[in-house]
Amino acid sequence: MSIESTINRKLQSALDPDCLEVLNESHMHSGPATESHFRLTIVSGRFSGLSAVKRHQLVYATLADELKNGVHALALHTYSREEWKASENPVPESPACRGGSVGNTAD
Questions:
Q1: Average pLDDT along the chain, 107 residues, taken 10 residues at a time
Q2: Do 103 and 37 meet the contact criterion of CB atoms below 8 Å apart?
Q3: Whole-angstrom Cα distance, residue 40 to residue 22?
């Protein structure tokens, strides 16, 4: 099972989301295109009344094994049902990679 599929399955089970989008953005970053960088958009009733920090902690706890074993970065966009309904286009695009691989050195 791919890491993307595992992330999707775990978040579905833990958060019972109304909307879940898992995008593998590894190809946008330096180094080989692996399953290491993901953008997650999650709309869940479980987020109602929680701060952004608490929402992110909930996602990190759910994906603790993946974060220890190869997932390098998560771009998290978490919304309560009310926030999602009130927003027209809430999910920003991920920025381009700023480098950081061994081959990117200044001369």
A1: 94 96 78 78 96 98 94 92 83 58 40
A2: no
A3: 5
